[in-house]
Amino acid sequence: MSEDGTATTSTDQTAETMSSKEKRKHKVIIVGAGMAGLSSANHLAKNGCTDFLILEGRNRVGGRIVSIDMGSQKIELGANWIHGVLGNPMFELAMQHGLISIINIPKPHKVVAATEDGKQVPFQILQEIYEAYVCFLRRCEEYFLCQYLPPPDIHSVGEHINLEVELYLDGVDCAKEKHLRKLIFDCLLKRETCITGCHSMDEIDLLELGSYTELQGGNIVLPSGYSSILKPLCDNLPNENIVLSCPVRRIHWKRKATRRAGGAAAAGATDTILEEDEEEEEEENDGNESDDSDRTVTEVPVGAGGAEPTQEERRAGEEAARRIKSSTANVVVECENGAIYEADHVICTLPLGVLKEQAETLFVPALPRYKVESIDSLLFGTVDKIFLEYDRPFLNATISEIMLLWEQQQEDDGEGHQPTDGRERDGQWLKDNWYKKIYSFSKVSDTLLLGWISGREAEYMETLSHEIVAERCTDILRQFLKDPFVPKPKRCVCTSWRKQPFSRGSYTAIAVGASQDDIDNIAQPLYSSPHQSKPSVMFAGEHTHANFYSTVHGAYLSGRTAAQILLTPDSPQEIVMESDSSDLSSWIQGIALD
């Protein structure tokens, strides 16, 4: 299948095959085949609506859910766990399809912590600090749950925890013991950045930390890989309803519904939007900022360095503009390969990272200012994984994880913050210190280790070759284990979620100054006119769920909610999702539209 869509292929999942069927008008178009998009499509299909089309930029479905084989193991490059059991639709789906036969009893989890000189910390000290840290974190959550006021000038989770740590360590007399405990706290804060999805916990709003709802039951791993949960979702969807390798260029969502009325009457109608002027401005910009800004939603840049379009490209662009302007559909979706689809409704499930880079150019006309501001306010951090595969086991069989207690650098505040001097600008600090953001290596199996890294250090790691990362990790293990014979891995796999054009990061967090209101603002549907009973554009994805943001089940529920709104008979002011006995989340969530 050609990525530009110009060559005809035999598969029934390409835009060209759809063109041969001349099926370019649909009731619903779903942008993105991640969990939110698949959930929307499933809910539509199960309720008798099959006139929908999923447009996916990648050559696969699943979005940020992707498993690969590494040795004898199935490893997760993206989503790792089903977070919680009670009320989690992903757990219920996995159980229903036999992906979890029994609840596995967790293996003994022995964690050791070592300093840079290879000395292991006594377990009782590690346990003491961990329990204190969890207590500090729970206090942060209470500000949201109980509406407490924080101390003056304390706005972030990082600031609050560091204040608690300082008070806690004041009670330790021995300077050496105090220093050791501080290193453990620093390591736990680095771990928290990977859980939360940020560079530093100083970025996370203190008053909003408790807005995330944690479902009970622990974290569940699917033995066959998280990607195995995609099959039962895709089984309900006809192949021809999914178009892969078809990135969306623009979504034209305000149509001139009364344009045919003509003259002043049309111009004065309340639901008439003068879209042509905006489109002409964008056409004037083609070859300038448009090409650059669109690169995040396509694997192949449309233009290089502002090069003049060819005559064929210009002709295709003019034809596309003509078709868009002549369309009478609520929404017109323009794809990178030149395909144009019309729809009554669009469900946009693009990740927050893509919206941050594309929101200004992706929608015509531009999104309302309140929505753009909320997109900008929320955090979409980078969290990456480093997998190391070995020929033979070398770590003590009883150890499941080794925590790395890095000494605090003079330019580093303990969470991996970069300095503000000239070395930050030329990247020298990151080059020298990026690997110190890796807080631990844990065993996936006896011959497979996993390290986590977040923030700007993760983004820097994405620029390095896997060989360089493997060499650095080998040096780290030899240093902290005090063993010069730790072997080099036979294979190293690193993720690169920030570099991926269809994700541009990992998952959502609420930054200082942002709130649940921003999530609700992004989720707010768009109407082409005040007379519409159903919205033209709806938004779904983990970044649109006010309580389950950053999770797969949040994405699933948001996608189902969007589909349900389109399925519900016209004119209700409040939509209540039916709750079956296996899914309490819909009851917990509740949906109300303004």
Automatic annotation (TrEMBL):
Main location: cytoplasm
Co-factor requirement: FAD
GO MF annotation list: polyamine oxidase activity
Domain of life: Eukaryota
Ranges annotated as biased composition (Acidic residues): 273-292
InterPro entries reported in the protein's UniProt record: Amino_oxidase, FAD/NAD-bd_sf, Flavin_monoamine_oxidase
Keywords carried by this UniProt record: Cytoplasm, FAD, Flavoprotein, Oxidoreductase
Domain Amine oxidase: 35-254, 322-566
Region called Disordered, residue ranges: 1-23, 262-321
Biased composition, class Basic and acidic residues, residue ranges: 311-321
Low complexity: compositionally biased ranges: 1-17
Glycosyltransferase in keyword set: no
Flavoprotein found in the keyword field: yes
GO cellular component terms listed in the entry, alphabetical order: cytoplasm
Compartment(s) where it occurs, according to its Swiss-Prot or TrEMBL record: Cytoplasm
Similarity-based family: Belongs to the flavin monoamine oxidase family.
Protein name in UniProt: Amine oxidase domain-containing protein
Organism: Anopheles merus
